[in-house]
Design a protein that fits this description.
By secondary structure, this protein is of the alpha/beta class. The protein has one domain (about 5-255): NAD(P)-binding Rossmann-like Domain (Rossmann fold, 3-Layer(aba) Sandwich). The chain contains 9 helices and 9 strands. The protein has helices spanning about 5, 20-30, 45-55, 70-80, 110-135, 165-185, 205-210, 215-225, 230-240, and strands spanning about 10-15, 35-40, 60, 90, 150-155, 195-200, 200-205, 230, 250-255. Strand 1, helix 2 (about 20-30) and strand 2 form a beta-alpha-beta unit. It is globular and about 55 Å long. The termini are far apart.
C-alpha cells in the first residue's frame, strides 16, 4: 500500500495553516486524499488556499487556535463537513520570540505561553476526547487497527537542546515536549498515536515575526545551508501518519544536515 493510499478518506485538522509548515502540511495531506479543516488567524489566506485546492476536501475555520471556542468550532466543522470526527490533528500553531530570559521582550511572554502551551494543550485535550469517544479501543478487538488516529504536535530543537538566543521560546517547547509524551502514554493503550516532531531551523516567516535579527538569520543561513523548507517538515509528518495503526514514530528530531547547533 502506498503512503497516499494509507491516508485516503481520513479527516484532518491543521492549525497555523496560513503559511509555513502548517500550509505545507495542508497541501500534502490534501494531495494524499485527506479531507482537511485548515485553521489560522488570517482568514484571507485560508480562503485563498481553499479556493486554490478546491472546496470538496478542504474547509477554512479562521480564528485564534488557542481559544477554546475556536478549537470546538474546527473540530465540529470536521464532523459536520466531512461526516465524522477528525482522526488526524496537527497541533502546529505557535509563535517564537527572540532572546533569552534576560533579553527577550517580557511584554510578549504571556501571549507566547498562552498560544504555544495552553493552546496546544487545549487542542490536544479536545482532539483526544473526541477520538476516544468516537473510535474503538484495543480491548474491543482488532477494529482499531483498521483506521489510525493521530495527534501530531510540533515542538522544536530548542525544546530539547535549550539555546540562549531563544530560551523563553524554548521553554514553551520544553513544555510541549512534556505534554506530548504524557499524552502518548495516556492514549497509547487506546490505540491513539501522539507524535512529537521537533524541527530545527526552517525557512519561513517565523523568524521575522519572532523578532530575530536579520544578521543572525543570515549567519545561520550561510553556516547551515541548505536550510529545511516547510515541505521537508510536512513530508515527515505525512510519513508518520501514513504508518499502519500498530506502528508509531512518536518522537522525531529533524534538522538540516549541516546544523550542528542547537
Amino acid at each position: 500500500m502506498s503512503e497516499h493510499a494509507a491516508l485516503e478518506g481520513r479527516i484532518g485538522v491543521v492549525t497555523g495553516a496560513s503559511a509555513g509548515i502548517g500550509e505545507a502540511v495542508v497541501r500534502r495531506l490534501h494531495a494524499a486524499g485527506v479531507s482537511v479543516i485548515a485553521n489560522a488567524r488570517r482568514a484571507e489566506r485560508l480562503e485563498a488556499l481553499e479556493s486554490e485546492l478546491g472546496p470538496d476536501r478542504i474547509a477554512a475555520v479562521a480564528g485564534d487556535a488557542a481559544d477554546a471556542g475556536v478549537i470546538d468550532a474546527m473540530l465540529d466543522a470536521a464532523r459536520m463537513r466531512f461526516g465524522a470526527e477528525a482522526d488526524l490533528v496537527v497541533v502546529n500553531a505557535g509563535r517564537g520570540l527572540a532572546g533569552s530570559v534576560s533579553t527577550s521582550d517580557e511584554s510578549q511572554w504571556d501571549e507566547m505561553f498562552r498560544v504555544n502551551v495552553l493552546g496546544a494543550a487545549r487542542l490536544m485535550r479536545a482532539a483526544a476526547k473526541r477520538m476516544v469517544q468516537s473510535g474503538p479501543a484495543p480491548e474491543d478487538g482488532d477494529a482499531w487497527l483498521t483506521k489510525p488516529r493521530d495527534i501530531v504536535v510540533l515542538g522544536s530543537n530548542v525544546g530539547r537542546h535549550i539555546s540562549p538566543f531563544s530560551s523563553l521560546y524554548g521553554a514553551t517547547k520544553f513544555a510541549v515536549n512534556s505534554l506530548a509524551e504524557a499524552q502518548r502514554r495516556e492514549l497509547a493503550p487506546k490505540g491513539i498515536r501522539v507524535s512529537l516532531l521537533e524541527p530545527g531551523i526552517v525557512k519561513s516567516e517565523f523568524q521575522g515575526v519572532a523578532g530575530y535579527d536579520q544578521s543572525w538569520w543570515d549567519n545561520f543561513g550561510t553556516r547551515f545551508a541548505p536550510l529545511l523548507e516547510a515541505d521537508d517538515v510536512a513530508r515527515v509528518i505525512e510519513f508518520v501518519v501514513s504508518q499502519p495503526a500498530h506502528v508509531h514514530l512518536n518522537d522525531i528530531m529533524l534538522r538540516t544536515t549541516r546544523q550542528d547547533y542547537p
